[in-house]
Structure formats: C-alpha cells, structure tokens
Amino acid sequence: MPVASQTTRVQSILLNGYHGEPTRGSVTIHEFDRGYRIRRAVAGLGKWWGVGLLTVLIPVAHFVLVPSFIAYGLWQFVQRLGTKELAADARGTCPDCGVEQTLELAPRWRAPQLVTCRHCHRGLRLTLP
Ligand SMILES: [Zn+2]
Question: Is 34 helix (H, G, I), strand (E, B) or coil?
Fold first, then answer.
C-alpha cells in the first residue's frame, strides 16, 4: 500500500468582473491521494459520531441531537472521501473595485467558479489562466 500523502501547489487564477481587465490572483490547492482521503473521511466520521455520543447525556434533546450528528458524520464522510482537491488561501484583486482581498471559495476546488467581492459585493468569475 502506498504511503498516504498530501501535496500542496499554488495555482494562479484570473478574476473576471463586469468590466475592466481581468485581474490575477492565487490559490493554494491541497491534493489528497486515496489513502489520505480515507483517513481524512474516517477522522471526520469519528469526530461527529464522538460529538453525537456525548449528546446522549443531554435529556430530551438527545432524541434530535444523536441522529443528527450520526447523519452529519456520514455526510462528512462521503464529502471528504470525494474531495480530491481542497482550495485554501485564495487571494486576488477585484477587477471592479480594485480591492485586494481573501476570496471565499467552495471547499471542493473547481474552476471556473463564482466568487463574491467582499468589498463591492459583486459576483466575479474565477477561471484558470
Ligand atoms: Zn469589488
């Protein structure tokens, strides 16, 4: 069995707004191999089932909390198992208002995707150069 690992690369991106030239930015992408995805999925499942187990001690509320955390744990497991690339630390300059900022991305990396400028609240399109 190969050693489970995680590799990181920095990808440059383009941001397109309503007008003006597209601007450049960058995003850090963590790539997970199969073994790492499985470990990450099991860790997520264990964490939420652990929380679910603790809520057994809360009277009445446990009827809702325990099944909710079990379901959420399963959902996390499936999500993490399917996440091959995770985006983090995305930065760029808004082509419309010119403010440099940290961008809020979808957790699972994909391009193109839509992002919102934190300053002027306009929708921007993130693409690869
Ligand atoms: Zn803006």
Answer: helix
Task: Write down how long the chain is.
Answer: 129
**Integer Cα distance of 114 and 25 in angstroms:** 14
Q: Provide CB contacts within 8 A for 26, sequence distance 6+.
A: 10, 11, 12, 13, 90, 91, 92
Q: What is the pTM of this model?
A: 0.74
Strands 6-16 and 23-32, bridge-based pairing: antiparallel
Q: How far is the CA of 108 from the centre of ligand 1 (A)?
A: 23
The residue among 20, 10, 12 whose CA lies nearest residue 92 is 12
How many whole angstroms from 26 Cα to the centroid of ligand 1? 16
CA of 70 to the centre of ligand 1 (A): 40
Q: How confident is the model at residue 20 (pLDDT cuts 50, 70, 90)?
A: confident
Structure tokens at 41: 């999925």
Taking the centre of ligand 1 as the mean of its atom positions, its distance from the CA of residue 17, in whole angstroms, is 8
